Fold this sequence. Notes:
The chain has 152 residues and is an all-alpha fold. It contains six helices and no strands.
Amino acid sequence: MLLTSMVVLVLLLFVFKNALFITMSLLAISIVSLSLLAINSHINILTAFMLVIVYVGAMMILIGYICAINPNMIMEPNYSNLSLLFVLFMLYYLLHAELSVSFDVTTFNLSDYFYSSYGLYMFMVIVLMLFLTLLMVTSQHTVPKGPFRSVT
């Protein structure tokens, strides 16, 4: 159920190009991916909570900035080719990845997880989502800069 909702949110990113929707979807995807890790006992629940707190804190700042500047900014580029590439990559990963790998919780720590291939993939997904949000915030060239945005 969680994996299905994450895939649906990722596919909806290519349909709705509103900046606030994309930011909220990235936040939901990161929370779902961390909860999947905690459910499959890849990481400890408290470690997942710490990562969620750090990521949600960064996203709250970015969401506040997007709402203050321009909440209804429409992303201009056409993502049709990128969406096809992403869907093919997800299909390849889901068909060829070893999703049933489970670590022994007694001898497992977080550094061992992030040195594994699945941990590196999850870390790169979380970093990529945060980078995309930062990119959306910093690439708003059409809005005025500074505290006097209403003054022309």
